Each structure stands twice: as structure tokens, then as C-alpha cells.
Amino acid sequence: MTLQMKVFISFLYFFSFCFTLFSEKAFAQDSNQSLQVNIGCLYPLTGPAGLYGRDSVVAIKMAQDFIKQSQRFSNLDVRVKIGDTRSKSLRAVQLTRSFIEKDQIDFLCGVVSSRIALAVNEATRKRDVFFIGTDHASPVIVSEALQPYYFRMSNGTRQSMLAGAKYIKTNYSKGKRLKIAFIGPDYDYGYSAWGDLRAFLKEQKVEFEISGEFWPKLFEPNYAIYIQKLIDLKPDIVINGHWGHDLVTFIKQAKNSVLFKQSVFMNFDAGGNFEVLSELGKDMPLGLVLSARHHVNWPPTKENKNFVETFFSRTGRYPSYAAQGAYSGIMAITEAVKQAGTVRDKEKLRHVFENLKLKLPEDPDGFKSFMDPHSHQILQVQAIGKTVANDRFVPAKASLSDWRIYYPPSKWPLLKESK
After folding, report:
1. Into how many domains does the chain fold?
2. In what order do the strands lie in the sheet with 76-84?
3. What is the C-alpha separation between 35 and 77, in angstroms, rounded?
């Protein structure tokens, strides 16, 4: 070996040593040092779904304030940048690239629509960036589209539909062959919800027949033709798969018909979201069977009451489900970094996320949300109730009561079709 080669190799060893030393000093978990965590969040701040983004921004700041005040996270500096997706896939992907390439974020979080989430997921897959989903619910992203650095911190439709199937079996089947009709949005979220519910009803040995299926486009302004078809079919149960503005529009238009008197109306995933109750006010019919990913009046725990009241004190309104989802996403990232002691070691962080347990506002006493390591789907308790008159949470004039509580299985439920 020549002298020049020996000098060059010695230089490489020295450079490697210096770089390692610098990295350890920069990212070591030390109570006297601050570990900076950079997060880029994607939410719709404008348009029909803008409320979800605005509520998420408030909840993110609540999470940051909690982190700053917590002794456990005293060495973490959590910084969040938020981008307005405007509910458009292309814009969300562009923001994703900007967050990664320009802002050099460590984690991406958020996204309300499953359609947009799938596009963002593909963009992060190519760059090996953590994507912590907080609102979208399609099971596709935690099954066939799953990538190593994606994790979801909110209930998926599969959990909602499993609870819904159990609810129908317990409260409505009882040896009767049920006539069930479905109406939902014409994209993956709606297809997955309906497919999962049918599969779980069969697993629960519920006797049923399908009266009809209807697939209006997203943000449909007029449901009159669909409402009349549902009335004509006279099903025992109408399963609705809409959310947000679409669900509000549907209920307002159906309220003046005989639909809710003729059939039991159910929405197991997003029907009981507070923004729906709030927007409908006195127009919310009583006796509808609904659920949500977060309720302002369940569970009746100190943590949930504090979350709801703190949100109200900051905004003068009660939180939509998206607020708790955004809060959960930031807290999950913070807890994972705390346990891993780094934002650079992706495999270590991935292992922590896969085994994460976290106490969240929507968790009842004695239960912690926990991650399924195989699907990267958080598993949580599902509460289903009926609408009753209640003006405690203005401007809503109804809330959910007569609760039925369904704890999650120990692992993400696989269906025969998806194996």
C-alpha cells in the first residue's frame, strides 16, 4: 500500500470519527440538550372540509403546549409546519415534496381524505419518510398499500364496521332476516366501509339481504333521487357511509321525508362526529344510530373532559373528531421520539411505533390505544349511541346516548377477502 493511500484511509477514519461524534452530540438523549423534532402536517384549511383543518391546528397547538409543560418531554423541541391541501390530491403531494425537500421535516402527519392519503402515502414511500395518518379511515392504506413508515393514529373504517356488525347482531337481528340498504360516497372510503360491514355481518352470522346500493359522488348537492329510492325499497336498516358536509346535506334533505320513520338509520364511522351534530342543530332527528372517532361526551373521563373544555376555552366551540386525531398524531410522534431518543434512526423509530401504547382523550379509564405492529393501525374502543335531545353542547341540540361499547380485538381484524 502506498503512502498516499495510507494517508487517505487515515483521513477517512478521522472524518468518520468526527461525523459520528458530531451526530451523537447533536442527537443524544440528554436532559441538558434539546432534540428538535420537525413535523409537517397536511390538512384542508379552506373549502368544504376546512373545519377539520382549522380544528386540527388548534389541537396541534394544544399538544405542543402540553409537551412544553411536561417534564417527560423537557428535552424535546417539537416544531410543526402546516400546509393547506384544499382537499386536492395533487396539491397535497406537492406540499409533501416541499416539506421533505425544502423544510427537511422528520415526520409527515395529518390528511383527512382517504383518497388524498393514498396519494401522499405513495409520495412518502419513495422517500422513506414517516407518515403518521390522523383522520382518513380506508383500510387499504394499512393493508395492500401499507409501507414501512406509515402509521395511523385514528380508528379505521374496519374497526367501525366490526363494531357496527356487532351492534346490529345484538340489537336488531334476533332470528330475523334483515333488509339492509347502503348509501355512501363513490370512492375507496365508501367501498371499503360497505365491503367490511357485509363481511363482518356474515362473520357474526347475521341473516340479511341487500335491498340496494347507492354511490353518489363526493360533495353531492342533491340527494332527493337517492332518498326516494331508499323509501321505495323499505329496508329495515339504511347504512350511510357519508361524512362531514355530505352527511349533513343528506340528513337535512331526508328529514322531511318518511325515511327515518320507516327505516333505522345508521352511520358507524363519522355520523356522530360533533361537527355533524353542531351543523344540524335542531334539524338533527332523534333515534339515529351513530358513532364517531371521538365524542365530546364519551368517555366521561378526566382526560377527555379536559381536552374538550380546553379546546372550547381557546375557540368558543367544541371540537370536531379531527381535533383529537391531530392531537393524537403529535403526541404519538413525540412519544416515539422520546422512547427512541432520536429522529435519525428510522429503524429504531419504526420499532417504537410498532409497539406504541398511548393514553389519548378518547380512551376510557383502564385502556390505552395500542398499535397493531403488522398493519400499523392504532386499535381503539368504539362507542355507538343514539341521538337524543340535549343542548349541553351548543349549537348542537342533540347528542349521543344509550351507549354500546366495543373494545378492539388484540390485532387488526383480517377479512377473508383481504388475506
Report:
1. 2
2. 76-84, 35-43, 107-110, 130-133, 150-152, 377-379, 369-372, 357-358
3. 6
* Core vs surface per residue 129-143: b (16+ CB within 10 A) or e: bbbbbbbbbbbbbbb
Domain membership flag for residue 9 = no
104 located within any domain: yes
DSSP category for residue 371:
E
Predicted structure pTM score: 0.88
Q: List, in sequence order, every residue forming a beta bridge with 83; answer none if it has no partner.
A: 42
On whether both 181 and 257 belong to a single domain, the answer is yes
Domain co-membership, 179 together with 285: yes
Task: State whether 171 and 257 are in the same domain.
Answer: yes
φ/ψ of 402, rounded to 5, equals 55, 50
- Which grid coordinates are listed for 66? 402540553
Cα–Cα distance between 163 and 374 in angstroms, integer? Answer: 21
pLDDT tens-digit map of 359-373: 999 999 999 999 999
Q: What is the pLDDT of residues 380-409, one digit of tens each?
A: 999 999 999 999 999 999 999 999 999 999
Residue 371 forms part of a structural domain: yes
**What DSSP line would sit under 298-367, residue for residue?**
SS--HHHHHHHHHHHHHHSSPPPHHHHHHHHHHHHHHHHHHHHT-SS-HHHHHHHHHT-EE--TTPPTT-
